[in-house]
Amino acid sequence: xxxxxEVTNVRRDDPLLPRxxxxxxxxxxxxxxxxxxxxxxxxxxxxxxxxxxxxxxxARIRLVxxxxxxxxxxxxxxxxxxxxxxxxxxxxxxxxxxxxxxxxSTLILGxxxxxxxxARADFEALxxxxxxxxxxxxxxxxxxxxxxxxxxxxxxDVDTVYCCGPTPMxxxxxxxxxxxxxxxxxxxxxxxxxxxxxxxxxxxxxxAGDYALVCRDGPVFDASEIQWDGLP
Length: 232
Description:
seven-stranded mixed sheet; Rossmann fold; globular; 2 domains; alpha/beta
């Protein structure tokens, strides 16, 4: 959870709430007294992210974390398909970068256009089969991420689908994985206020009729645990 703007001598209460951000990449500390580097990847879409973007090098920003549950590590030798859409690609970079030796990863990234695709060079440097889709056809295959996902699932040797992006995209990927009898793991992007299960603002419905808190129980879930009709 990142505060919307740098810490100054004047307390900032507007916007009041922090913004939930995925850890894009982490570099370990170089020594016991050295901090580790944590990178986040975000798009300026409102006042909070605009204030974050205005922070200068060396500025201090309040951070609470790490919070929640991460993606489970793929088992060695397994073939996995990792799907990211929009700003959700920030959540899947670490998964693809840290896959165990011998794992076979297909990475599918989708965006509206080539200019909307963030961190392209970082993903291209990963040891994975990389496929791009754009809605306008300006990069890679024209269309949605579900088309290359369907082709990968049709090959019949996929162990797990990992997914993060807009809710309709994750639901579509989950439905296609379920039809193929393949486990799908998703990272939900519900808005959060506190980040540790106090405010109950990020509740997600389950098929049994109860609710999970995305910040505390997730954000990563087996897709079968989510009642997709009840998500915004």
